[in-house]
Write a structure and sequence with these properties.
- The protein is α/β, with parallel strands linked by helices.
- The chain has three domains: 247 residues, Metal-dependent hydrolases (TIM Barrel, Alpha-Beta Barrel), CATH 3.20.20.140; 26 residues, no CATH class; 80 residues, no CATH class.
- It is 32% helix and 21% strand.
- Strands 1, 2, 3, 4, 5, 6, 7, 8, 11, 12 and 15 form an eleven-stranded mixed β-sheet that branches.
- Strand 1, helix 1 and strand 2 form a beta-alpha-beta unit.
- Helix 10 packs across helix 14 and helix 11 packs across helix 13.
- The protein is globular.
- The relative contact order is 0.12.
- Bound molecules: zinc ion (2 copies).
- The site of one zinc ion has 8 residues, from loops.
Length: 403
């Protein structure tokens, strides 16, 4: 048994997030995509929590249901604090085993003068270490997972306001951190090459700010879609695989300066330095650069993993809507693209199945030959990549020439 989970989501109460992120819409999109377990997101926000309380039905310990879709209580907290003489900003995903724990977390955050009725992803003025200790005091079954750990500004290992190791950030609480989230700009192989992450489970979720982006990265856990097997999955690395963006498509993969259209590989940065060749200001160091720094220059790639059984496989995906826009010669937001997307997902049992498992013949029947060819090329890694940098998404396209 296995379940597909997206446990980094936001509601319409989080800043910069779509007003369409309602429970009903989230459940409908989970079905369309084929996701078994969602995070409720934003449970510290009073209005959203009231909606959760009114609409979710308990299924089992720590797992709730809405219109046939399962949810666990999960949110993101933004820690802003000083440590080691520097300002730090670290985002944490926090899962709670029940509503009582959520009420306890809200009281604790209230006591720290945290504004809970603004952003669904509130800013907490306490260190990531202390927040972790307080959360586990409320209920030891709470789970803390650092979010998008490589993101320059809000990742625990990010180049701007992060740390060089989990130990440096979490101190004595480090063993209580079971897992880390890769973020879009890195994949599990890049993370396996970093010594500070040894023994931590590597997970991938979408961090979607809109419905179509739900499930753009996912983790497949062993067991039954609920809190117990989620907890075991994170603590004991019972992960079957993750479904990943190409890390180059993430918006912080390479080092660069968006305004100056400068982007550099780690090799180029070693030669040219970390100042912008155009404006002279410091470049935003990318995730690949940072991973190289913290791995001592050795990065593992998927093809070099060999027979290491402890390291499960992962699958690189390109969102179906992007492949449709490409093969139809339309924009992502075009009505015909949305219609094709819905009909393919409905016919093939969800986007995840269409991208990873559907046969060429099924894809051809549901979406036409060009789409079947495009999906096959992405599965085989036959893609053209322009890497992202300094907040600009990269692009991944199936090869245009040849079959
Ligand atoms: Zn975040
Ligand atoms: Zn510049």
């Amino acid at each position: 048994m296995a379940f597909t989970a997206d446990l980094h989501l936001h509601s319409r109460y989080a800043y910069a997030c779509s007003k369409n992120l309602t429970l009903a819409n989230m459940a409908a999109w989970a079905k369309l995509k084929g996701i078994d377990l969602l995070s409720t997101a934003d449970y510290t926000h009073p209005a959203w929590l009231a909606e959760l309380e009114a609409n979710l039905t308990p299924v089992d310990n720590g797992v709730y249901q809405f219109e046939g879709v399962r949810f666990v209580l999960g949110t993101e907290l933004s820690c802003v604090f000083k440590q080691g003489g520097r300002s730090r900003r670290v985002h944490l995903l926090v899962y709670a085993p029940n509503l009582e724990a959520v009420y306890g977390i809200r009281r604790m955050l209230d006591g720290l003068d945290t504004k809970l009725n603004g952003d669904g992803r509130p800013t907490v003025r306490v260190s990531a270490r202390d927040l972790t200790a307080r959360l586990l005091d409320i209920n030891p079954a709470c789970i803390v997972v650092p979010a998008h750990v490589w993101t320059p500004w809000y990742g625990v290992l990010g180049s701007k306001s992060g740390f060089d190791s989990l130990d440096e950030c979490f101190l004595d609480m480090t063993p209580k951190i079971p897992a880390v989230e890769t973020g879009l700009s890195s994949d599990p192989a890049m993370n396996w090459s970093v010594p500070t992450l040894a023994g931590k489970t590597i997970v991938s979720f979408s961090d979607a700010h809109s419905l179509p982006n739900m499930g753009r990265e996912l983790t497949v856990f062993q067991g039954d879609a609920g809190y117990r097997d989620l907890s075991l999955g994170l603590r004991e690395n019972r992960v079957e695989r993750t479904l990943e963006f190409f890390p180059e498509e993430g918006k912080y993969h390479l080092t660069g300066h968006r305004k100056c259209a400068i982007s550099q590989t780690p090799g180029e940065t070693r030669q040219a330095g970390t100042g912008c060749a155009k404006c002279g200001r410091p470049l935003t160091l990318g995730v690949l650069h940072r991973v190289m720094e913290l791995s001592g220059g050795e990065t593992v790639t998927q093809d070099k993993l060999g027979e290491d059984a402890a390291r499960r496989s992962f699958t690189r995906l390109t969102p179906l809507v992007e492949l449709l826009a490409h093969t139809m010669g339309k924009g992502r937001a075009a009505k015909t693209v949305a219609q094709a997307y819905h009909s393919i997902c409905t016919e093939l049992g969800g986007e995840v199945r269409a991208l990873t498992q559907a046969t060429f013949e099924d894809l051809k029947r549901a979406g036409g030959e060009a789409l079947a060819v495009a999906i096959t090329k992405v599965r085989d890694g036959r893609v053209e990549i322009v890497p992202g940098f300094d907040g600009q998404y990269g692009t991944v396209r199936p090869w245009d020439n040849g079959a």
